[in-house]
Amino acid sequence: MAAFPLRWLLTLFVWTCMFGTVSAEQDLRETRCPLCDMDVIPSLNQTIKGNQAIYACEMAGHLDTLRDPASKILRGAVAVTALDVPYTNAGMACPVCGKTELKYALPWGNRGNQKIFTCSEEHAHLIAANQEAYYEGTTPSHSGEFCDHASVMFDGFQSSIGRTCVKLWFQPWVLSSGVSYALGFVGIVLLGIFLEWFGEYREGMEELFIRNYGITDTSNVLADPTYPKTAMTTLIPSTPGGIQTVTTCTLPTWCTVALTCMYMLALVVGYMIMLVAMVYDSGLFVACILGLGIGFYLFKDTEADSMSGNIDPCCST
């Protein structure tokens, strides 16, 4: 009989410890980055005295910007009457004196919902004047590997070597080593070459469909020099009576569906290249331009009367 109360007390103690641990921290599920309002990454943080911290999202450079007093991200003190989300259950204290009665807050930036809380306006001014003095722990340094944590976008053009890894298109595709980065570089070059080749291939298939499967229809209309001229329409010079013959070509449904599928594939590849450029990794941006340039050199007919296609790879038709 004595074992049951002891087991119950141990269970209650464990649950109390677990609940206390959760309650002592801000709710990171509701925490937003002060620079972009995106969800934060728990490991990207700078701890602050008084059981407080500032968290950043996965975008490269945001944590460094928040840490740096010269960025002037930390705003002026405002009075608070209660802790709001995500701090409603957080166990915090003033970073200056350790008091738990918090009456003022220093918001981080104009976005997000993070703050530093203090017991008085005077202590808030002290933190605003020298925020680094209240940091705890050491600033994370480079691990010595090829790169550190991953990001889908850098803060301006930079190299990922020795800095932040590139997350390429999908969550698991992180270029975290020299080998994976080299493979990604080569793959992007090949993707650009493929896009230029595929553009020429689509146009050739359209001409083939028109020539072999096109259904022509001939009609007579009044002569009009503004009549639309397309690859599917042929104008026969007008007769002395002002009548001109128009021959229009239409394609079977299956041909149109095939051309539509090829068009959508070209859009997918084009947007994938665009997303790589938007990462702002200098090396991968070079890979995008290099691939498209090689593809242009190999497959474009530069001696034609007019070159088709669109120089914008994400919208190439």
UniProtKB/TrEMBL annotation:
Belongs to the copper transporter (Ctr) (TC 1.A.56) family. SLC31A subfamily. Coiled coil: none annotated. GO terms for molecular function: copper ion transmembrane transporter activity. It holds the Pfam family Ctr. Its main location: membrane. It comes from Aphanomyces astaci (Crayfish plague agent). The lineage of its organism: Eukaryota, Sar, Stramenopiles, Oomycota, Saprolegniomycetes. It comes from the Eukaryota. The chain crosses the membrane at residues 173-195, 254-276, 282-299. InterPro entries: Cop_transporter. One of its GO terms (cellular component) is plasma membrane. It is a multi-pass membrane protein. It is found in: Membrane. Keywords: Copper, Copper transport, Ion transport, Membrane, Signal, Transmembrane, Transmembrane helix, Transport. Residues 1-24 form the signal peptide. This is Copper transport protein.
